[in-house]
């Protein structure tokens, strides 16, 4: 059992919600935060049905007032889980969507982290866990904005890891791969919310494009996050599932030997995005 307090952003659904439940079961005091007020009561009800107690609060990380209010809470671990995904080719992505991608995933996350990092520095202890993505290490077509935002988080996490070491503050990342939660598929449907004029004369036909990877069951991600929080896992970077680690490392290394493309040909992942069905599970 633990008497430590963990703040989880984006706990209204997905990894954040499941991690909140797992940590509450382990005895942590969990502050589970949601982007909107409407998510609060359903999360409380679900926790109650499981016999768990959560402190559920509204925290839109892109809202300065919400961030300042949250900074009044005393916590031991910050889990930066909240994030959005804007799909679309770099050449087609509307400016407002691109800016929103970074406003939430980068600026909202880091501005909140700054507030708690100062709290941790004063206490000479604390832990910051970034729920990044394998997209923060590699990049797929049609996910450039999301991937760039996660690459930015990786850069901030690396810097914080070095800067806060002398104050006893721990930093770690969790990098989920293609996980079948609906998040990846909704990213590839984001174009349906573009302004009508932004849908005109796009380079790619988004009605025919889907997330270009088979996807894994989500249960293992929340388990890894909880174990990183508890210290059962001490690695700085945690790619999940384990089956994709080697391929991810190879993809990262491939860039060093890549040559500039000299002939016009469709990239294999672009073609796969046209060929694959949405929400295709991995057969493993």
Automatic annotation (TrEMBL):
The keyword Secreted does not apply. Pfam families: adh_short. It comes from the Bacteria. Residues 4-175 form the Ketoreductase domain. SUPFAM superfamilies: NAD(P)-binding Rossmann-fold domains (SSF51735). Keywords: Oxidoreductase. Belongs to the short-chain dehydrogenases/reductases (SDR) family. This is SDR family oxidoreductase. It comes from Rosenbergiella gaditana.
């Amino acid at each position: 059992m633990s008497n430590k307090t963990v703040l989880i952003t984006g706990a209204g659904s997905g990894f954040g919600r499941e991690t909140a439940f797992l940590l509450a079961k382990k005895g942590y005091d969990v502050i589970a935060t949601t982007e909107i007020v409407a998510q609060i009561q359903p999360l409380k009800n679900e926790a109650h049905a499981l016999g768990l107690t959560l402190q559920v609060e509204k925290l839109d990380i892109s809202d300065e007032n919400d961030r300042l209010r949250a900074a009044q809470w005393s916590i031991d671990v910050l889990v930066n889980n909240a994030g959005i995904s804007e799909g679309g080719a770099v050449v087609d992505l509307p400016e407002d969507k691109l800016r929103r991608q970074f406003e939430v995933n980068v600026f909202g996350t880091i501005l909140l982290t700054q507030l708690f990092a100062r709290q941790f520095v004063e206490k000479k202890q604390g832990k910051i866990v970034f729920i990044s993505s394998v997209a923060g290490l590699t990049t797929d077509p049609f996910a450039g904005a999301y991937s760039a935002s996660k690459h930015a988080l990786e850069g901030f996490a690396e810097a914080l890891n070095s800067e806060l070491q002398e104050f006893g503050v721990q930093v770690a990342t969790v990098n989920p791969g293609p996980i079948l939660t609906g998040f990846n598929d909704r990213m590839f449907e984001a174009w349906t919310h573009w302004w009508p004029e932004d849908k005109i004369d796009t380079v790619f036909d988004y009605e025919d494009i889907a997330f270009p990877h088979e996807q894994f069951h989500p249960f293992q991600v929340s388990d890894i996050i909880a174990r990183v929080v508890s210290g059962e896992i001490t690695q700085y970077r945690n790619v999940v599932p384990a089956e994709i680690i080697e391929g991810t490392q190879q993809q990262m290394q491939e860039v060093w030997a890549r040559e500039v493309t000299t002939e016009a040909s469709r990239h294999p992942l672009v073609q796969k995005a046209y060929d694959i069905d949405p929400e295709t599970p991995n057969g493993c």
